[in-house]
Design a protein that fits this description.
Layout: H1 2-19, H2 24-47, H3 53-63, H4 72-77, E1 79-83, H5 91-98, H6 106-116, H7 123-128, E2 130-134, H8 141-163
């Protein structure tokens, strides 16, 4: 009886994983918001005389999901990173899953990997044994596409203003 119950539990988890897979626009939007947060934080510290922009951005990108599996971007997109037990991830798992995102141009590779994975996992997720889940799966992807475009415009504006 215990083995059957365990099989049913695992089957239910697999079904939930498939149902909660976020769309690509939500994930891109969350990432862009996190990049914006890191960039603004780096610029504010630079104004205080601490010009460690790249270090701040890399540390933020690596650690961003370490608190309850939710970064600022994921919070705005209603996403959460969970482990194989469907529990929010910790800082160590965040570091592992986000290493590829700190490598220039590799986020693009990760994007295409997640598009082709049935559970939406990218290389970092597979290494850390994590998965991004959609806390509100019914939301329209088009909204997040528009918000992503707006986020890119803001990032470019912040970067341009910072260079002046």
């Amino acid at each position: 009886m215990g083995r059957q119950l365990e099989r049913v539990r695992r089957s239910c988890q697999e079904v939930l994983k498939h149902m909660a897979k976020p769309g690509p626009n939500k994930r891109v939007f969350a990432f862009l918001i996190d990049v914006l947060v890191a960039r603004v934080l780096a610029e504010l510290l630079s104004l205080l005389g601490m010009d460690m922009s790249w270090l701040i951005i890399i540390v933020y990108i690596l650690c961003r999901d370490g608190y309850k599996g939710i970064s600022i971007g994921k919070s705005l997109a209603n996403l959460q990173v969970v482990d194989e037990r469907q529990q929010p991830i910790n800082i160590g798992q965040s570091l592992i899953r986000n290493i590829p995102m700190a490598i220039p141009l590799f986020p693009l590779v990760e994007y295409f990997v997640s598009l082709h994975d049935p559970l939406g996992k990218r290389i970092g997720d597979k290494a850390a044994k994590t998965q991004v889940t959609d806390l509100r799966p019914g939301e329209k992807e088009t909204l997040y596409l528009i918000l992503s475009i707006a986020a890119v415009i803001v990032i470019v504006a912040v970067t341009t203003i910072a260079k002046k």
